[in-house]
Each structure stands twice: as C-alpha cells, then as structure tokens.
Design a protein that fits this description.
Length: 179
C-alpha cells in the first residue's frame, strides 16, 4: 500500500491513450470500449480530454457520433496534475474539480493518467473497503471517524473506541491512512 505522500508517477497509467482531434466521436467510443478505458487525451492545441461521460452527454444533446469529432466534445480547460505531485494533491484536485481522472504532466507534456481506481488500489489493502478510503478525512486533528472491522458500524469521536458499541468488534481509525 502506498502513502498519500507517494508521487503520482508511481501509480499513474502510462503511456496515456491519445487520439487526434479530428477522430470521429463514433471511433473514439469504439476505442474506449475496445480498450476498456474511460477517457482519451486529445492531441489538440491545447491538449484536451474526452471521457465516456462527455460522449454520452454529447449524444444525448443531439451530437451525431458519425459526424462529430472528439474536439467538439473535449473538456476545456484541461485539469492536470504534475507527475511529481503527491497522491494527496491528486485526491484534493479530483475532489475540488469533481473529476474521476486526471492527465499527468511532465517535461514531455501529458505522460500518463491517474484515476480514482488507481488511487483506491494504491491506498487500500484487502481488509479495507473503498467506502472507508473515500470517507477518510486526512487531518491530524480530532475528531476522527472509526469503523468496526466486523460489522461496519461507524462513529466519530475524539479518542479511539477500543470496541464497537454494536457488536464488540475491533474499531479502526478511518481518518488515518492504513499502512
């Protein structure tokens, strides 16, 4: 398991899948489906991104996938994270901007992509739940959120309850990354 201070470059997917800005929306949808990915980076100037959601929203709004090109649907401005940034910075940026994936930039432009799935995989162990990771508030100050490892009961408290008030199971602190 990684820590929140791990550089993004250690967990990002690379190389990132790119497409030309004049690729049809239909062809982009085929790429996303065939490669089982959620987005492609558009090599326009400036660089952009098109996600499955962008395509679905575009088609729902009347875009003809055979005639429209990805440049018509690309997200602008492109929100990115630097490859040397920490996972904490990536999580904060995703939360702030309501994003599930961030292109990762380096000296050579877009060098990868980091997704919420990448972050969950990097920051959890088999005994942790996705919900537990997403509920974490990374702060050294109390109160903290504690969860029973047996029944999932949660409580917010200033000090660590040793046992679950519901079932007597062991409580763990969700406010601290598990090592």
């Amino acid at each position: 398991m990684e820590s929140l201070d791990t550089p993004v470059r250690d967990v990002m997917t690379d190389p990132v899948r790119t497409v030309a800005p004049d690729l049809s929306v239909r062809e982009a949808a085929t790429v996303l489906s065939a490669e089982d990915i959620g987005s492609v980076v558009v090599t326009s100037d400036p660089v952009a991104i098109v996600t499955k959601t962008d395509i679905i929203d575009g088609v729902a709004s009347g875009c003809d996938p055979a005639d429209a090109v990805v440049a018509d649907l690309s997200s602008d401005p492109l929100v990115t994270v630097d490859a040397d940034a920490t996972l904490r910075e990536a999580v904060d940026r995703m939360e702030r901007d309501g994003m599930r994936r961030l292109p990762v930039t380096g000296e050579d432009g877009v060098v990868g992509i980091v997704t919420t799935t990448d972050l969950v995989d990097a920051l959890t162990t088999e005994t942790e739940t996705v919900a537990g990771v997403l509920a974490v508030r990374w702060t050294p100050d109390p109160p903290h959120t504690y969860e029973c490892v047996d029944c999932g009961y949660r409580v917010t408290a200033d000090s660590h309850p040793e046992t679950c008030p519901e079932c007597g199971g062991r409580m763990r602190n969700l406010s601290v990354a598990q090592e």
